[in-house]
Amino acid sequence: MDMEKAIKETHAYRCLDCGKCTAVCPLARLNPIYSPRLTVERALWGGDLAHDRLLWSCLTCEACSERCQSDVTYAEFIRHLRTRAWEGGQSGECAHGGALQTLMRMMTKNLEQNRLGWLRRGKVAERSDTLYFVGCLPYFEVIFQELDFPGHKVARSTVKALNRLGITPLVLENERCCGHDLLWEGDVDNFCRLAELNLQTIEESGAQRVVTSCAECYHTLAVEYPRYVGGPKAEVIHISELLAQELPTPTTSRRSTKRVTYQDPCRLGRFSGLYEPPRQVVASLPGVELVEMERNRAQALCCGTSCWTNCGADNKEIQVERLREAKATGADLLITACPKCQIHFRCAMSDEKVGQEARIEVEDLVVLAANAL
């Protein structure tokens, strides 16, 4: 994308140089070299950002945009810069040996996957108005097995929850990654290939509604697909929205036997504005009490990294800080609606140096809900 167009579309030219973005940036608090304000300023003055390694460190969490009085969409601005850098042969440092990025690009090819081994229980249909878009959960289960990440459990719990609501979903045999990470890394071409393959499969299924259990899949299908490749024609909905619509709202006070706190995923919260549906789901579950962290909803702290890229000591410190905040609530359980949030928190706690003040059980919202239904 042309830099002038990127500056115009993201309103970067409106920057007042006030520094509020840098003041609330989780990364800037730990790395004084990084500054959203200075990044915008350098771009406006024609600076070379394509070779700046910190370009790939931004969490794209949008905490800055929540404070910006000039409506600068900084995360979008960073994405445009990364696209330009990628086109020039630059990229960030891939975490996990680049395995996840390689897997995503493999999925752009003509291949057949064996990705339904997790589907041992639950009712699914060959044709249905409702399609469950599983995302990369089956692959995360394998790649992050040393963290005991229960990707299959999240997928099975989603099917179970849909069944309890009287819905028998369709699950695709050859679904691809939604492409979120490639897009936010700047690899737009391969993102579009994945999007087109998924759209074709979704349209051929005849489904009228696509349900996701991943915050990033939700935002990508609902917002980025229409922006880049058009569609899908089907409604896209996060499982928390559907559960919030269908589960009864309690009318009397109940004694709680479990206290939970909730991590707002960036893509579900600040990007999509879905703050209340997950909380409504928790409120409907018998014996469960929600206790909020000090920073919640639009002020929630990001889980610390994005796109499996440039993950280092600063990112780990952000994760541990959030875990401490969760533990300080007195909750028994930290729940989230994004598999990556859970993976990142589990990864942080795998470090033996992390104390008990930052250790708490982590679970997906849909697992909690399915167990209570």
Mind explaining what this structure looks like?
This protein has 373 residues and is α/β, with parallel strands linked by helices. It is 44% helix and 8% strand. The strands form 2 sheets. Strands 2-1-3-4 form a 4-stranded parallel sheet. Helix 12 links the parallel strand 3 and strand 4. Helix 1 packs antiparallel against helix 6, helix 8 packs antiparallel against helix 9 and helix 13 packs across helix 14. The longest helix has 18 residues. The termini are far apart. The model has no long low-confidence stretch (mean pLDDT 95).
Question: What is the topological layout?
Answer:
Elements: H1 3-9, H2 20-24, H3 26-30, H4 36-44, H5 63-67, H6 74-87, H7 99-106, E1 130-133, H8 137-143, H9 151-164, E2 170-171, H10 180-185, H11 188-205, E3 209-212, H12 215-228, E4 235-238, H13 239-246, E5 258-263, H14 276-284, E6 288-290, H15 313-328, E7 333-336, H16 339-349, E8 361-364, H17 365-372
Parallel strand pairs: 1-2, 1-3, 3-4, 5-6, 5-7, 7-8
Helix pairs in contact: 1-6, 8-9, 9-17, 13-14, 15-16
